[in-house]
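<instruction>
Derive structure tokens from the sequence
<entry> Chain with its tokenised backbone below:
===
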Amino acid sequence: MSLLSMWLADSAAFASAVVSSAAITSATMSSAVSLGADVVALSPAEPSTSALLSRIQFAFTVSVHIMFPSMTIGLATLIAWWEAMWLKTKDPVYLQLAKFWIKPFAITFGMGVVSGVVLSYEFGTNFSKFSEIAGAVIGPLMAYEVLTAFFLEAGFLGVMLFGWQKVSPRLHFTATLTVAIGTWISAFWIIAANSWMHTPQGAELIDGRFVVQDWWAVIFNPSMPYRFTHMLLASFLTATFVVMATSAWQLRKNPDAAYAKKALSMTLGIALILAPLQAFVGDLHGLNVKEHQPIKLAAMEGIWPEKSTHVPLLLFAIPDQAAETNHASIGIPGLASLILTHSVDGELTGLTAVPPSDRPNVAMVFYSFRVMVGIGILMIIIACWGNWLRWRGRLYQHPRFLAVTPWMAPSGIIAVLAGWYVVEIGRQPWVVQGLIRTNDVVSPVPSEKVALSLLLFVTVYSVLIGVYLYFMRKLIHKGPPALEDIHQYKVGHAAAGYAAALQHDASIGPAKE
């Protein structure tokens, strides 16, 4: 999860720069914004080709990066749970699952590190002015993430991956649990930094630089609790549906695979709890957005009038940013007002409440939001369907369910990307809400150099993703060690490798029970 904060500056530009032909333009900013005290906003700067390319590059690289930590947070938690259940029940199937999924976790973690390292360089080379302006806030938060999470993960990851035959079972479980907790801590600091950019508190903009007045207010800013919970649940669901889809696919190949049955049953139970809970947390987050970022909410719901009541919940529409209206709208009258204000006649702020230069790319926010919500609804349907089949005793023999579920493997990743596009595109044209515009913080790098680096990133990342998918497919096709051979994979003093290391005898026999 480390370096996810690089999303902070520009993931919003991904859709608006790549898909939309209407680039965000600059206009006069408000003279002052309340941030615990009146602070003067920086003057807008004209967008340039270099700025546009820098934003596209950053959006591309961070979109690739976020896929991997979204999986590792959930996978680390699942592996820790399986190890705990193995220690408690001595059921070797749990050890099978832990040993099987630790390899996909390892290569996914590695891809997250590889894809994340470059983001810190981009942060300095392409958005150096942001570092000058907001470094006093963002820098320490990133340092806290490194000191409390990255070092924790790095210190215990080696034991988790390679210590099966070197340490006791309980110590190995402790290492696995520590890595999982490290991913949660990392998410905490990254989301704290990102949330501050959406709902800035605890700092004042003095002479063009932020000065921290209250660190508690900076960290626990108004949107942080909702966004942190939302992101953790999204990561858990991402890993849950990857494991669920893989287990369903394996059961189609081998209907008697005990490990696949256990994993499928377990993940269906998790999904039945987390998917509806995620919808509830998302609703709370939406209410928070209504209070602090009403223009983002207006883009999400396709609301144009400055003030409107009895607002419909649009199931489909074609937003027309130039004409400030929607075409071919299909909606449920009054439902948006009911959800967001608890009254059918509740009043909501529309996009025309601000000048066109202060609006995000409406189409991308609108459609991304519906992709995210649609996948969430589909997750709930799959979870209910699977648990109903389990209750009826038909789960492992139902060909249609086992055929449909593998297609849900990428659903969590797609939902995470769509959700982040909603969050970040909806904040535009601001990099710090109401205070700093994205175009004001781009480094003055020649456009041809940015174009070259963008081309190189696309090429290299395409190769890396191809290699990653090749090895993931290979590991999944191979499956876990056979249950009858699981004694060879014991941990700690019971492992043959541990005894061999002690006696310096490569020919030592099998481990004793």
